[in-house]
Please model this.
Amino acid sequence: MPSSSSYLPVCVNQEQLLLSRDLRGRRGLLPTVIPVYLRMAGTLNVEALRGALQAFTERHEALRTSFHHNPALSQDEIGHSLREYARSGIVKPGLYLQRVAGEVQIELPMHTVTESALRDLVNDELTRSFDPEVPPRFRACLFQLAKDEHRLLIVLDHLVSDGWSVRLLERELHSLYVSFARSTPSALEPPGMSLPDFAEWQSQNTFDRAIRYWRGQWEQFGDTRIRLQDFPFAIASTEKPGPDFATWQATFDPAVAGDARRVAVEQRVSLFMLFLAVWAVVLRHYTGKERFPVWTHFNNRVRPETHGTFGYLINTHIIGLDLGEEPSGRQVLDRVRRAVLEATAHQELPLPQLWRTIGSAPRFDDAFVMLDFRNGNAAVNPEPGDELRITRTALPDIVLPRLSQLGVYVTDYQSSIDVAAVYRKDAFHSDSIRLLGEHFGRALTELVNVCRTG
Model:
């Protein structure tokens, strides 16, 4: 492993976030932070929690990285690369490099607060920017509401984290906390491939097979992307200066959720495939399009050594869907299944690498409709004798910016299934999104009933 003073390559997706920050969103402002908000109910050992955060940082190199412009490039060369990216959406690799610090001290400030004061305090933490040249790549803050009631906010720099990383953090932090609280050795296995090592592997891979596949997908579906004007209820114009996001959310009736699980098993599809099929039916209804792509995130933990990797590995791609010739409910599911399986088999390619190969990158503007499916893992399972229960909880009335103009996010909590529509307030009225959400629920019920009865 290179020494901590060595410069190392960055991942392709990290490069995109760094470009977005350098250009202050001139080609679209990408999300910058990922919040982890945990309720801690019971007797909390603050020093054990502080020790667990420190140990977690020592386990994962990504949290100790700093990012820099390549010192071999002059300021003129850096400026030229940024201008070229702003114009074309393409930049040659090597503009940014990263370094790994050997040791970073983690702070855990604690504040005694009331429930009503939480929103502003949490929002202040979420809106503070990270200095890319100064680790660590996260900050933590503990809020005490009562003697046995706390909230832990961990703000992760998106440069080194994704949804998979959040679940890894929750599991390992709990295990490390128990070890520190009981003064016992950690039972955790060694961490997976480090993020800098993954970036090194990625920089040496040509992804020829995946490039051929995704080039074909963009040739078929690139011009059929759904745009805001395709929705009859989109706001035609606005005087607002920029995007502000809002959320409509609901929990499916337990009976409907149970039927959805059974149909998924019967039809040999995942719940993600089932809900993607529902979203496709809803989009066809509103836009009149029969062929279109939907954006989604792929975990990109294909290689076993990346299962324990903390870092920004996910890739964002389109899944091309064809609902032509009035397919039955089962036919829709079959088409979606095939499309998802094919896309998943080629998920390792970072999208910007495709643009480099093609030599051009499309401007997305408003053509960005997404569906994401998540396993909620609402609580970390307590161990025998635990005096503390750790549960993921919702941010207090805060909606962070998203990449999509309209995204549907389905979360499976095992005991329930939630759906949230996150949308740009300068593009859609809240009443329209509420009706769309209700339509989504009806479409799920209808698809499930059709598949169960024939």
User: Anything to note?
Assistant: The CA atoms of residues 220 and 320 lie 8 Å apart. The mean pLDDT is 90. The longest strand covers residues 33-42. The radius of gyration is 23 Å.
